[in-house]
Write a structure and sequence with these properties.
Number of strands: 0
Oligomer: single chain
Number of helices: 27
Structural class: mainly alpha
Order of helices and strands: HHHHHHHHHHHHHHHHHHHHHHHHHHH
Shape: rod-shaped
CATH superfamily of one domain: Tetratricopeptide repeat domain
Radius of gyration: 49 Å
Helix content: over 70%
Strand content: under 5%
CATH class of one domain: Mainly Alpha
CATH architecture of one domain: Alpha Horseshoe
Distance between the termini: 174 Å
Largest sheet: none
Amino acid sequence: MNPTVDCSETPVLKKKPELDGELIIKEKAEKHYETGIISMAHSQFDKAVSCFSKAIVLQPHKTQFYVQRAEAYLQLCDFQSAALDYKHARRLEPQTEAYHQRLAFIHYLQGQCLFDLGNFLEALESFTKAAELKPDFQPYRMRSLACLSALGRYFDCLRLVNNWLETDGLSADLFTLRARLHHQLNQMTLCCHDLKSALSMKPCCPEALALLGRLKEAAEESHQAAVDKALKGELSEALGKINSAMEFIPNKAQYYLFRGILYRRLKDFTAAIEDLVLAVEFCGIEEESPQGKPQDDSDGLEEEAQTQMVLTYNDFAIQCFSQGLYSEAVILLNKAIEKQRDASELFINRGDSFFKQCEWTFALADYQQAEELDLENTAIWLRLAVIHNTLGLQSYEDKKFQEAAERFSVAIKYNPGVVQYYENRAKSFNKLGKTEEAKNDAISVLVLEPTNDQVVPLLLSLLPGCSLTDIMSCATAQSVKTLLMEKIEMFNLAVSCMSRVGRMALAKDDSQSQSSSQKLQGQKTEPCDTTVDVHSKLVKKKQQLNQAVKRVLQQKQPLHFDGPRLAPARPVREHPSAQTQRPYVWRKFGGFGLNC
């Protein structure tokens, strides 16, 4: 019989604990990570990289493992590997801003090392990446600019700074930086403008002040060189030098005035007018010295610029006149007269332009205005004589003999030495039945021009039965001759007095014109020297001239006749056909208060 087995006493087997693979991997990864941290603390960076790499293999989703390995790579100056690890960290946690900044810093360090080694192109790439990750951090952008500058790519630098000015707003530092780039590119005008903008925002910016001082020194050197060239008569070379000065300092009124004078002397009148207008405009915005006082005499500059503008309009009109463009000459002289209404020469020249257009009334009005401004100017007397003779001829043709005789009388008053005037008046008096007056004028014609056969028939008809010899030897003829010679002598005396007291002749050719221009500028060592008041000098000359003429006239012998006592110019013996042209020789304006 088998023994009974008691099942209740059967022993129970114990279950082995289940193995958790994820937990084991996690624990192992943590152990490698902790070992890596300890290695980092002991500066064992290679071992730390190995430990962190093992941890990453076990748990590739752990951001901290990549971060620590990146820091270990960074200590080993393996910037490329460090950057890759931080990129992994960014992918795992894109919301963490610190990873972006750290990655930007790694690119910056890499770029700086490459820059120090002279690998500017690779450094530029690293700095650009850093700036893209942290665009608001200016040092990263500046390092990119330094790389471009080291590579000689200044236009790229300029483009970069322009973008910053658009995106970041205007600042004195950026304007100064762009000014330095313009200076490097030899763009001096733009450089000066940027420096002015920088100083307007930050008046005490030392970098901008220093660079602007260098520009001013260079500009003044070019200006002085231009003055030296101009004094030697090398006007084209002087123009090149003053252009260089204006590139350094583009808004200086004195430079525009000087260049305007050069253009006028080179007969580029349009350019001269433009520069002189700018000179007047810039006079009101001249820079101030550190003491707060204007550096230049703005009032003197503006007055001289206006004077030169009048001269330029007049010279331009002379050029148009010489080419037969009389209407254009009138327009230019109108502009000159608007700015200077007390210059008799302007009215003389405009009167000549009107005369060429057969505008006799306007020409007479201008000559009369010129006479009011300068009573002793014999050039005006000659023109008034011719215009009155011309108007007298018109009246004679219209059978207005009394009016014609009056016109011829005025012509004789202004110039008693012209045969044609007496001949014309004799014919008018004969038509009016004034026999005595006609006879005296006919005798005057033969006194001035014994070979004149135009008035002989008239004279013989007025004195029938008398021979020409008897007529010219009679007491009446001798009296007429005496009075006529006195008139002519007084006229010649007035002309010679003008010459002795130093009246400046209005030039008739280019060489004289250049001389007149030099005299007008006061024979200054610097044509645009603002310390010399040209206008006051010329006014002083005119006052001296008037006093000299008055002294001469006060000492003259009394005239024992009731006729006019004006003393006009030398006798001019002309053929009748040339009578209306030769006295009207175009004359150049030599300056205010100066005439023939």
